[in-house]
Write a structure and sequence with these properties.
The complex is a heterodimer of chains A (about 240) and B (about 250). Chain A is an alpha/beta fold and about 240 residues long. Chain A is built from nine helices and ten strands. The longest helix of chain A has 14 residues. Chain B is globular and about 60 Å long. Chain B is built from nine helices and no strands. Classes of the chains: A alpha/beta (about 240), B mainly alpha (about 250). Bound molecules: adenosine-5'-triphosphate (ATP) and magnesium ion.
């Protein structure tokens, strides 16, 4: 799969420009880390990619044709975790996943297998029968990730998926994302630079609605003569030539 | 999309919710109190099982029934519900179908409560008066309750899409109108309290006034139009811009 963003801009009604003339090509298989300060436009970009929002100008092409014309195809192969998401809190973890699987899986048997698979991937085995209302923040985050993995979508978009996870879980999810991205396109936004370096093969840095950098994490470190990606990122965002 | 599974969960979520069960219990208790306190004496010297008495009973029960309906509608607009629906909007689900399923589940929950109000009264008629001619009562009861219920449902969708708090304001308005017995013109008579008025002017044969029936028709049309609008609107959560771009 190949997604091309061409001269993409988004200005919210009565708001300022959240994205300004973005040109970017994303192709599978790849794990793309989207980083940038608060308000950089990461979530906006993700909403545009999921056809949740429409661009003010410019366009998004999926495999060469406009995304808007293939909304249905896009959505049937998409797993998305919004930054602020809600769950049906009165259902148990399994019931919620069964609800979502009713949308994403064609029959009961496939749904059951998929639910077992994503529960194992997100380590929710002991919370299967717990009401979502009773889960901790990090556990809810894992239910959110689990629902996006249902149906094994070809495009996965996670908006700050590791927020609220403990270090062991963050480590596990980094590996999960890297593993998933071996034959898919996975895009994740994060503020945690350590999440990007070991896992992502591609880094996109946004600031003030513009792309500051796109390339591998290693080449950014080399470019900024930095020992860590965090230092290189800080130098980039602060406009310094080297860390 | 397996519609049956989604419908099953939507029903479960409504029927097992504390607020529904609580309001249903209050409604049943209130209906029983009405039967013992007023229905048994009949309305305006008519039989307890006359259409006049039955309509009078239903117009008293309507206040709680409509509050229950609005409380069910308000549930759809909590922050966590809205955010969960955002996830659904990015899935391949047809939002119009999803909305229709949700509305159908809400309708089932309301109709169950309404059916119980009818049923309790019918059991009472059967046990106390051995009366079983329910056909004309059901007909009058449906005309009395269904049109305003459709209208309130549509209005709740309209307001809830703007802000959840507006549904609660509508609920408060219904509560105030009901609790203080504020009388509205026949054509806007939500609870149907005006139905029995002719009885006190000497009319014996039960009929609905033309103005009342016109109001019921208007409630139905407005309610159905709003419901269809909101079912369809969800089909394109990106509308109306999408149409502009495609054209
Ligand atoms: N619905 C909205 N209406 C108006 N402006 C908005 C809206 N959503 C976002 N913005 C603005 O668009 C800009 C980009 O927001 P966005 O949420 O994409 O940032 P972000 O990079 O995801 O930030 P964060 O790291 O805090 O999540 C911000 O300046 C924000 O104020
Ligand atoms: Mg964001």
């Amino acid at each position: 799969m190949k997604i091309e963003l061409k001269h993409l801009s988004k200005t919210y009604p009565h708001g300022k420009a959240a994205l300004k003339n973005i040109d970017l090509t994303l192709a599978s298989p790849s794990l793309i880390g989207l980083v940038g300060p608060n308000g950089a436009g990461k979530s906006t970009l993700m909403k545009l990619l999921t056809a949740n929002l429409l661009p003010t100008s410019g366009e998004i092409l999926k495999d060469g044709s406009p995304l808007i014309k293939q909304e249905k195809e896009l959505k049937s192969g998409l797993g998305y975790l919004p930054q602020e998401f809600g769950l049906f809190e009165d259902l148990t973890t399994t019931q919620f996943l069964d609800y979502m699987a009713a949308i994403k899986c064609p029959d009961k048997k496939t749904a059951k297998d998929e639910i077992d698979r994503v529960i194992a991937l997100t380590h929710l085995q002991d919370k299967q029968k717990a009401k979502i209302r009773t889960l901790s923040g990090g556990q809810k985050q894992r239910v959110g990730i689990a629902q996006s993995l249902l149906g094994d979508p070809e495009l996965l978009i996670f908006d700050e998926p590791t927020v609220g996870l403990d270090p062991a879980e963050r480590f596990a999810f980094r590996n999960l994302f890297a593993e998933t991205a071996k034959n898919r396109l996975v895009i994740l936004s994060t503020h945690i630079i350590e999440d990007v370096q070991p896992a992502c093969d591609h880094l996109v840095v946004l600031n003030g609605g513009e792309i500051l950098y796109t390339g591998t994490p290693e080449s950014l470190m080399a470019e900024k003569h930095a020992a860590t990606l965090e230092n290189a990122y800080m130098a980039l965002v602060n406009g310094r030539a080297s860390a | 999309m397996r519609k049956g599974t989604i419908f099953k969960y939507e029903l479960k979520r409504l029927f097992c919710s504390k607020e529904y069960l609580l309001l249903l219990a209050v409604n049943i208790v209130y209906c029983l109190a009405l039967l013992r306190g007023s229905v048994i004496y009949g309305t305006g010297f008519t039989a307890p099982f006359s259409q006049w008495t039955f309509c009078s009973y239903l117009s008293s029960a309507a206040v709680l029934l409509f509050i229950l309906l609005l409380a069910l509608c308000a549930r759809q607009f909590t922050t966590s519900e809205r955010r969960a629906v955002t996830i659904l909007e990015t899935s391949s689900v047809q939002m119009a179908v999803f909305r229709a399923i949700r509305y159908a589940a809400t309708a089932c929950a309301f109709l169950t409560a309404m059916g119980l109000s009818f049923g309790i009264c019918f059991v009472f008629y059967r046990l106390v008066f051995d009366y079983t001619g329910f056909g004309s009562l059901i007909y009058a009861g449906l005309i009395l309750l269904l049109p305003p219920a459709l209208f309130l449902f549509g209005a709740a969708m309209l307001l809830g899409h703007k802000r959840q708090a507006l549904v609660y304001i509508l609920l408060a308005v219904v509560l105030i109108l009901g609790a203080f017995g504020i009388s509205l013109p026949d054509c806007m008579d939500l609870f149907g309290t005006s139905v029995v008025r002719p009885l006190y002017t000497g009319v014996q044969k039960f009929t609905f006034s033309n103005e009342f029936l016109a109001g019921r028709a208007a409630f139905t049309i407005a309610g159905v139009a709003l419901i269809i609008f909101f079912i369809k609107r969800q089909r394109t959560n990106m509308s109306p811009m999408i149409f502009l771009r495609k054209s």
